[in-house]
Amino acid sequence: MKNKTTTSLLMGLLAVSLAASPCYASTQQKITDTQNAQQENQQKLNDTQSRINSLESKKDDLEGYLQELNQQLGDLEENLQEIQTKSDETQQKLEKLGKELEAAKEKEQQQYQDMKLRIQYMYENAENSYVVMLLESNSISEFLSQAENMSQINQYDRDMLEEYKKTTEEIEEKENSIQQEQQELENLKQESLDKQDEIYEVVKTTNLQIQDYEGQISREEGNAQNLMAQIESQKDTINTLIKQQKDEEAAQILAQRQAQAAASQQQAASTADTTTSQSSQESASTSTQQPSAPSSTVTEESQQTSSGNGNTYLGRFRLTGYCPCAQCCGKSDGITASGTTATAGRTVAMGGVPLGTKLMINGTVYTVEDRGTSYGHVDIFFNSHSEALQFGSGYADVYQVN
């Protein structure tokens, strides 16, 4: 009878295990498929980010080149202003020389006309003039002196005419030189304007390229946001599936523990029956009331083990430690995902459950205030990195405090 009962209980445990296995395998396959899809999206996200970085680098290079072009335009503008200033000064010189040349030519012409009149007068009245000078002179010396004066006047006229001609030629040479300088300035001005137009065209093309890169970056960033949204959704799906798997495991463990408790209770009852049949009627009367006590005790222990003093058994979870350093969290401010300040002995990180969920682990009640791990993996907060490393990694039964 005893062997038969034990065999029935073992068959029951086997049936519970076999019933849970297909569900577990199905959930695990879903988790694997979702993780593979998540890894594929993560690779796409990495590729997208690489393209964004490349586009940003090219855009930065073009913006640097654009700054150089703008600097060149600024230099050309200053150069044009200098050329224009010199051109204006040269034009003023040309106008001044033009006036001087005109005045010199007029004076030369006037001098020439006066000299012609004197020569004509002297030629027409030369004979009378010399006779008059001879008659009016008191002596030969006076006559020769007056004749010499007339000769000097003629020489002076010729000298002045030559001087005016020379002055006119010098002015014309200066005018030609300044006109040549003015032409050179105009050529430089035109070259600067042509260079300016060329740079403006390059600036226009560069701006179009920058806009094209900005459009590509915007599209890639949109793709990255979509991929991140998909990855986050897949994380949630994985956490949900892992939670479902852990719930199945917890249910299986709970059923096994209940079956073991029932087997222990049945075995105790069978032993009590055997003892009762060998006792006297008076002892049998007393013994028939004995099994109820151990049966109750075993049942209570079973319920406490499976539910954690009335709390919901979640399963056997992996435990690790972390601290508020940049190596563990990527930052060092100690602020959790829930907005609280992480506190040793209270704060844990885990996904798949709402923030604020209370978990009992090895008799200590913690609060889920942070993220970073999937469901089934509890990261316990410590004040220092050495404490987190010392804690290491392990497994423990986890209960949700109701």
UniProtKB/TrEMBL annotation:
<feature type="coiled-coil region">
    <location>
        <begin position="157"/>
        <end position="248"/>
    </location>
</feature>
<feature type="domain" description="Peptidoglycan hydrolase PcsB coiled-coil">
    <location>
        <begin position="103"/>
        <end position="174"/>
    </location>
</feature>
<dbReference type="InterPro" id="IPR059180">
    <property type="entry name" value="3D_YorM"/>
</dbReference>
<feature type="region of interest" description="Disordered">
    <location>
        <begin position="264"/>
        <end position="311"/>
    </location>
</feature>
<keyword id="KW-0175">Coiled coil</keyword>
<protein>
    <recommendedName>
        <fullName>Peptidoglycan hydrolase PcsB coiled-coil domain-containing protein</fullName>
    </recommendedName>
</protein>
<keyword id="KW-0732">Signal</keyword>
<feature type="coiled-coil region">
    <location>
        <begin position="38"/>
        <end position="118"/>
    </location>
</feature>
<dbReference type="Pfam" id="PF24568">
    <property type="entry name" value="CC_PcsB"/>
</dbReference>
<feature type="signal peptide">
    <location>
        <begin position="1"/>
        <end position="25"/>
    </location>
</feature>
<feature type="compositionally biased region" description="Low complexity">
    <location>
        <begin position="264"/>
        <end position="307"/>
    </location>
</feature>
<dbReference type="InterPro" id="IPR057309">
    <property type="entry name" value="PcsB_CC"/>
</dbReference>
